[in-house]
Amino acid sequence: MAAPISPLYEKIPQKNTLHRALEFTIFFLLLSLLAYRLLSLKNNGFAWLIAFLCESWFTFLWVLNLSSKWNPVSYITYPERLLQCYQVDELPPVDMFVTTTDPMLEPPIITVNTVLSLLALDYPANKLSCYVSDDGASRLTFYSLLEASKFAKLWERYEELGQKIEGATLKSMPYELSSAEFVAFSNVERENHPTIIKTRVSGVMTNAPFMRNVDCDMYANNPQIFHHAMCLLLGSKNEQDCGFVQTPQCHAPRPTPRA
Asked: Tell me: the pLDDT tens digits for 52-82?
């Protein structure tokens, strides 16, 4: 591994003088209100005490929230430097998890779009693994993902893939599972299907050092998102400096029914 020549990211503090002045004003007003409540407590009875306790709790929560926003910073990542520091085969693998539940509330075409957007990221293909967690055990979702896997291999026209999935949505039994494709799935019923552990609270489900968790109605809007994330994760001096990387969410609108 080549020694890093330049930092992979830059941390820039943001100026927030006006914001801090506003927060100081609000904090002074809250303390003044609490002092007024406390000094007038004897003359106003039990209701005044309840108001004082509630406002004290609100002030405490407000201070906790303010402490996390007191020193805002922005990060500038340099993905072009990542490959200068690490060879392609040295990049860590990433497991990607997509969660879905109901194919009626969350149309399969949206889940397929999410999976395809993750598989199309600018990252070594042998370093990526995509898993779909379907709590509803829907055959329609499985059929859609099966067609998506064929699409990813052959790269057929996207319109044909969408027509297949939309046509399967109108059928009562969109797809008959064969034992050669997925034996365990054909024996699962919705009534006895155990609840799948949410990947957002369990890190045991992944063997990769890093994982990405998205909902089925979200997609990666930047093909180099993993390069930017690795700049922060690998560029940190120790593991305590960076525990996770959160990117702006991009939700796909639900398709409207056709007339």
From this structure: 999 999 999 999 998 888 888 888 888 888 8
pLDDT tens profile 170-212: 665 555 555 454 444 444 444 444 433 333 444 455 677 888 8
239 is in an annotated binding site: no
SS (H, E, C) 126-161: HHEEEEEEECCCCHHHHHHHHHHHHHHHHCCCHHHH
Find out whether 106 is annotated in a ligand binding site: yes
For 219, phi then psi, to 5°, come to -150, 160
Q: Cβ(208)–Cβ(92) under 8 Å?
A: yes
Q: Please name which of 92, 74, 38 lies closest in space to residue 233, comparing C-alpha atoms.
A: 92
DSSP string, 59-78: HHHHHHHHHTSSS-EEEEE-
